[in-house]
Specification:
The complex is a heterodimer of chains A (342) and B (241). Chain A has 342 residues and is α+β, with helices and mostly antiparallel strands. In chain A, 18% of the residues lie in helices and 30% in strands. Chain A contains 5 helices and 22 strands. Chain B folds into 2 domains: 79 residues, Gyrase A, domain 2 (2-Layer Sandwich); 148 residues, Cyclophilin, CATH 2.40.100. In chain B, strand 10 and strand 11 form a beta hairpin. Classes of the chains: A alpha+beta (342), B alpha+beta (241). Chain A: InterPro entries: CT_A_B, Cyclophilin-like_dom_sf, PxpC.
Chain lengths: 342, 241
């Protein structure tokens, strides 16, 4: 049983939770740009969020399952189509599906953002420095190639056709930040303006970071900021580059940098930045570190409760040819599964 | 009471101890020594540590109460003069053969002129200066090396060089950077090595560690061409004196 890559593009890679512990050697953690989507995919299939999945960074791909395979589709909503015995039907997002042998799955971007295809059992490839995720900036791994066969691990077992309402993070919005090492290098007036500005996410963006356009076009500048000493950089840092434009660093960012940083996005709000489509409005709200830690604890609880929030997909009986053979059995299994998870 | 060292939070899950407002060998050594001490202490809240040029970074468990950790960190930082500490860890000397000729050192003449040296004097200085890895960062395995004599305090280029190759030896602000991957840069290229600084498939993926002594002995272009085909790049590693 494998998943054959029929079509791919440069933004289609294997991702997991990334590699932690290599900062001292200059390697940022990488991993899924939207770790919440990783957790949601894992919850839908009843498996660990540490398994490797396919990430599509605003890029299309097509796959064929050589045998029956459960999958989950999470993250930014792409158009998903299943082609089976010459017939095509759309697949719903934030849902687990049972692909029959020989089925072809097409995924194509909607508004943008990062989409995730999680196979039951994850994709098993050799570990490199403790993880399977591609880190293209570091030269680890590469984009998936046409003809490549992805081998899923053992399916932990469980139902398909379960739905999970995603944690809210799509379409931009308010993002919580704490002061960074260099916030005080900016004049108070600029920090205040930063706080009041509605930014638009620029079309330029990737796994390393996304650029923000200030509403009125006025940039930011720390006096003497271009000669500050290089310091540690972490995902979430909002660095002000030479032209005054803020740039939010994501999971595959560099590990040190000399541009001043006006604020740092809370890790739990970084998915909201990563998933904001081009043009989406983003605002930043400073919180204290205590509030930030409380937000992180809330987020950890929300992730832990995902499995308990699954529900069977309501299907339109008129559109179903396989009511008896499929849905009833799926329903029985899912009821038991929900009990296990509660 | 001096303003330094300074302890400050970085993000919601990090702390940074900075030892100086600008690069100096003692401040870098202090950062390395503090990092080694914190690694040894194995505080439960600490997930990871790293050094920058003159600072030590601690990444913490974001869900743990940091009050106890901050108190312990303040005590440890204040307990001694870290700039007087010896360089921690195993001391290695890494010799990386370097070609300073023609196309392999396109900005050497310019850098030598700013440093007030002839080209030959500049090569002599780069090949014999006592240097060590100050920190590794930006890209995997990429070292910031220092510190060159004051004459080498040359600014970064305003107009970036579109591309230097992996293994390029570059200079600015009394430091050398040896590039781990091909990149655009504002640093001036003064040499070319066959060093592979990061190889994810190797048993030892990273060639250099912060604190390593390094030397860049000169070689000719023919020798460099040979070494480019040698996975080891002609590099020797020995215990430092």
């Amino acid at each position: 049983m494998s998943l054959i890559v029929l079509a791919s593009s440069p933004g289609v890679t294997l991702q997991d939770e990334g590699r932690r512990g290599w900062l001292a050697q200059g390697l940022s953690r990488g991993g899924a740009a939207d770790p919440v989507a990783l957790a949601e995919g894992a919850a839908l299939l009843g498996q660990s969020p540490g398994l490797a999945v396919v990430e599509l960074a605003n890029a299309p791909a097509r796959f064929r399952a050589t045998g029956p395979l459960r999958i989950a589709l999470t993250g930014a909503a792409f158009r998903a189509t299943l082609r089976e015995r010459g017939e095509e039907r759309p697949l719903s997002w934030n849902t687990s599906h049972a692909l029959p042998a020989g089925a072809e799955l097409s995924l194509s971007p909607g508004e943008g953002g990062f989409a995730y295809l999680t196979p039951a059992g994850g994709i098993e490839t050799p570990l490199v420095l403790g993880a399977r995720s591609a880190h293209l900036a570091a030269g680890i791994g590469r984009a998936l190639e046409v003809g490549e066969e992805l081998a899923p691990g053992p399916d932990p077992g469980g139902p398909a056709d379960m739905v999970l309402d995603p944690l809210p993070r799509f379409g931009g919005g308010a993002v919580r930040v704490v002061e960074s090492l260099q916030t005080s290098a900016f004049p108070t007036e600029q920090v205040e303006r930063f706080r009041r500005t509605t930014f638009r996410r620029d079309a330029r963006g990737n796994r390393m970071g996304v650029r923000l356009n200030p509403g009125d076009g006025t940039g930011f500048e720390a006096p003497g900021g271009l000669s500050i000493l290089s310091e540690i950089v972490q995902p979430g840092d909002i660095q002000i580059t030479g032209d005054g434009t803020p740039y939010v660093l994501l999971c595959e960012c560099q590990t040190t940098g000399g541009y001043p940083r006006i604020a740092t996005v809370l890790p739990c709000d970084l998915s909201r930045v990563a998933q904001a489509p081009p043009g989406a409005a983003l605002t930043f709200r400073f919180v204290s570190r205590d509030e930030g830690r409380a937000a992180m604890a809330d987020h950890a609880r929300a992730l832990a409760s995902l499995r308990g929030r699954l529900r069977p997909r309501l299907r339109d009986p008129a559109a179903m040819a396989d009511l008896l053979s499929y849905n009833l059995i799926g329903g029985v299994v899912s009821a038991r599964h929900q009990e296990d998870a509660s | 009471m001096s303003d330094w060292p300074r302890i400050a939070p970085a993000g919601v899950d990090g702390m940074v101890v900075s030892f100086a407002p600008r690069l100096s060998e003692p401040a870098n050594r202090a950062a390395l020594a503090l990092r080694a001490a914190i690694e040894e202490a194995r505080w439960p809240e600490v997930r990871e540590t790293a050094v920058s040029l003159v600072s030590t970074y601690l990444r913490l468990d974001p869900l743990a109460d940091p009050a106890g950790l901050e108190e312990r960190l303040r005590r440890v930082v204040g307990a001694r003069d870290w700039t007087a500490e010896p360089l921690p860890g195993e001391h290695r000397l890494i010799r990386i053969p370097t070609c300073y000729e023609a196309d392999h050192a396109p900005q050497l003449d310019e850098a030598a002129e700013i440093a007030g040296l002839t080209r030959a004097q500049a090569v002599e200085a780069l090949a014999t200066a006592p240097l060590r890895v100050l920190t590794i960062g930006f890209a995997p395995g990429q070292p910031y090396i220092g510190e060159l004599p004051v004459g080498w305090d040359i600014p970064r280029l305003r107009q970036l060089t579109p591309r230097v190759n992996a293994g390029a030896l570059t200079v600015a602000i009394r430091q050398l950077v040896l590039f781990a991957v091909a990149a655009q840069t504002g640093w001036r290229q003064v040499g070319q090595t066959a060093a592979r600084l990061f190889d994810p498939a190797a048993a030892q993926p990273f060639l250099l560690r912060p604190g390593d002594s390094v030397a860049f002995p000169p070689i000719g272009a023919d020798r460099l061409a040979d070494l480019m085909r040698d996975p080891g790049g002609g590099i020797s590693i020995e215990p430092a004196a």
